[in-house]
Amino acid sequence: MRTLGRSFYLYCGLALLLLLTACGGDSQRLEPGAEESLAGADESSRDASHFSWRGRGHGGGPGCGNGGDSDCGRPTGDIAELGLYSGREDEQIGTVRLAIDDRQRLIVHTRVYERRGDGGRLELQKLRLFIGPQAPAGQHSGHGREGWQRQMQRDFGWGPYVHELCRSGREDVFRIDLEELEAGCGEDCGAEELGYFFAVHAMGEARGPGHRGRSEDWDATAWTPETRVRFSENGWKSYDDGSLVFPDCDPDDDGGGDGGGDGGGDGGGGGDGGGGGDGGGGNENQAPLASLRSDQNTGPKPLSVNFDASASSDPDGSLVDFEWDFDGNNVFNEAGNGEAAARGQAQPATVVYTSAGSFNVGLRVTDNSGASAQASLQIIVSNTPPEVRMNASETWADAPVVVLFDASGSVDPGGNIVDYEWDMDGNGSFNESGFEADSRGSAQASFEYTVIGLYNAALRITDDDGAQASVSLEIRAGGWSSGSTLDSAGFTGYHCSLTQIAGRPAIAYFDNSNDDLRFVRANDPGGASWGSPVIADGAGSVGEYCSLAEVDGLAAIAYYDDTNDDLRYVRALDSSGSAWGAALALDSSGNVGQFCSLALISGQPAVSFYDLSNGDLRYIRALDSTGSAWGAGLGIDSSGNTGQYSSLAEVGGQPAVSYFDVGGANLRFIRALDAVGSAWGSGQTLDSSGSTGQFSSLAVISGFPAVAYQHGGSGDLRYLRALDASGSAWPAPSVIDSAGVTGLYASLKEVFGRPAIAYNDNSLQDLRYVRALDAAGAGWPAPQTLDASGFSGAFCSLGLLPGGPAVAYQDVSNADLRFILHLP
């Protein structure tokens, strides 16, 4: 019978010399499925563990044979998995796992579960590890601690080595040096097939409902050598990797054996000897596998990422550490950025990336033998550019004007705005000396525009990641031109009406000298030069109360035929208005057609007008989009003598009219009940404070109907805007100009988002203009005089061109047609 060397025998007479003790910590909860996995083990294994290291050397360590000169290969990895059982119906309450690391030390892992049924908690107080030589097969006389000790004393003459480990409630690792274990056995071990016998006795305390403070003894039994159980993030899993054995040979034997796979035979001669083989050192530890995943890899900041390393594994042991490098600087476990707090966790808390950039996140896992592996993935955090929002106190005003800019509403979704840069004069250069440089870094700024011109004021903002955004606003610092005469042939320019036709300003008017309806159109969009006037209708005395509109791309005019007392309509044959079609009589029922107003209603031309014969307000609409055919006229208000100074507009998708009630001397408003004006509601009185409502002009201002008009009794210019989009409710009127007799020929338009009115100041005989300070017309500045050369401003008509407002009017002193526009 072969024996091991003396050094090995001596160790068997010594205590286990190296014992690393770890204490404290919380117990681990048995994961779902653990009981089922563990319960599948062979019941015969529920006994003290008998493992014989012999026969084969897993991984091909140096051969152990009679004639070789190599050391015996030692195994690495798990050698036994023992279950801790309480006395409560063989309830498993923990595990003790034995393994050998790559430094040839015995590793003891302990783990105690929590009870699941009654909510109690188990605490491990003491653990005794019994290690001794194993007798040849069949020589065991009993089981358990006492029987095992007797067996060892009887067969080998010495007792087991008992080592008491400290109290522990978590998984702990204790290391015992195997080389010294081998060295202490010597020749007296007396076993030809020598192995080691492991047993564990544990004592713990159960705490919680039903067993508070009760101490219990727990026995440890082993699974069969062919079955291993290891822990992972997904619970306990069984796997079969065979038996890890230690060659039964004399360490001093110089034999080489066959090497490699079988590691020296089955405990006899160990093969034919030889050179020791090239098996490599027995069962070397296999490195763990690191697996790293994330729920998202890219996105704008702040980006929240959840990492998952639970798929990491160790093929021949267990993972004991997870280390993180979230910021990708190749330093693991840094404090203050979540890495240190995440250590040991396979699924750490959510990581939030607040800065843009690319981060090469690293994971390092370490197994129970100290081997490690790494994995990495790239997280790309993008920056959402800031959003610049700027408004100005004025976008259109007469120079000199101070404009206040406000960008305090700008935002950066993923951080902070760190700079504001201004180019208020619009020359393309930011931060120029003066207002711009002084305002850098501020969200608010001001600039005075002293020269008439068009300026693209710009702002550029920068966020804390260097991303920029910019915006510009068009600022019109203007002034009115000196005005120009368009027609001075005789007495002309009466009842003028200004609008855009095919992108250019155009005017319809009455030539009193020849009793003709006339038309003239500019040669350019800004009205800098004009063509020659043409006669649109010269059949009799025609053209008073003319109203011009663009109908299906061409100029069209509604007007009064004084010769026949009819309402008439004519449309040009080309975009320039150089040729005109035949005029149509729209209504011949008595003396009708004065104070007419032409507008597009639901895409087709329509006219409101005064029926002088009956003293009624009437309405008529075409049957097509060009006005080639018309329906019958309707009386829409016949309550007394009413309907002068009518002004037609589409209000809330339905036709509506403001007008003067002659009999009641009131301003009135009426709106249809449908989109085409086939039925109408009752008229409303908007102002009844004396003789009021002359020269009414209706327009939609910021979505609500509004009216400018003259209060005849006081000679004031007045304005009021409805409280809703349909014009069902109105406030009290505002007095805009009360200096003398003023407000004649009032013409209302929305100019760059605010109401504006052109009118005649009869006291001063001037053309005047005023624009509100706000979109609703709640506040108004002092009016401007546009033309004071003689008696000017009669029959004025305000229009809005691409460059700004313009006014057509009559120079009463010279009976000429004139035009004035705002620059730029």
Describe the protein's architecture and organization.
The structure is a single chain. This protein has 824 residues and is mainly beta. The chain contains six helices and 54 strands. Strands 1, 2, 3, 4, 5, 6, 7, 8 and 9 form a nine-stranded antiparallel sheet that branches. It is elongated and about 125 Å long.
How do you describe this structure in short?
By secondary structure, the chain is mainly beta.
How do the helices and strands line up, and which of them pair or pack?
Blueprint: H1 6-11, H2 34-39, E1 49-51, E2 77-85, E3 92-100, E4 105-112, E5 121-134, H3 144-156, E6 161-165, E7 172-177, H4 178-183, E8 195-207, E9 214-222, E10 228-232, E11 235-239, E12 293-294, E13 298-300, E14 303-305, E15 307-308, E16 319-325, H5 339-342, E17 351-353, E18 357-367, E19 372-382, E20 391-392, E21 396-398, E22 401-406, E23 417-423, H6 435-438, E24 444-449, E25 453-463, E26 468-480, E27 484-487, E28 494-501, E29 504-511, E30 516-521, E31 534-537, E32 542-551, E33 554-561, E34 566-571, E35 584-587, E36 592-601, E37 604-611, E38 616-621, E39 634-637, E40 644-651, E41 654-661, E42 666-671, E43 684-687, E44 694-701, E45 704-711, E46 716-721, E47 734-737, E48 744-751, E49 754-761, E50 766-771, E51 784-787, E52 792-801, E53 804-811, E54 816-823
Parallel strand pairs: 13-19, 21-26
Antiparallel strand pairs: 1-8, 2-3, 2-9, 3-4, 4-7, 5-6, 5-8, 8-9, 10-11, 12-15, 14-17, 16-18, 18-19, 20-22, 22-24, 23-25, 25-26, 26-54, 27-54, 28-29, 29-30, 30-31, 32-33, 33-34, 34-35, 36-37, 37-38, 38-39, 40-41, 41-42, 42-43, 44-45, 45-46, 46-47, 48-49, 49-50, 50-51, 52-53, 53-54
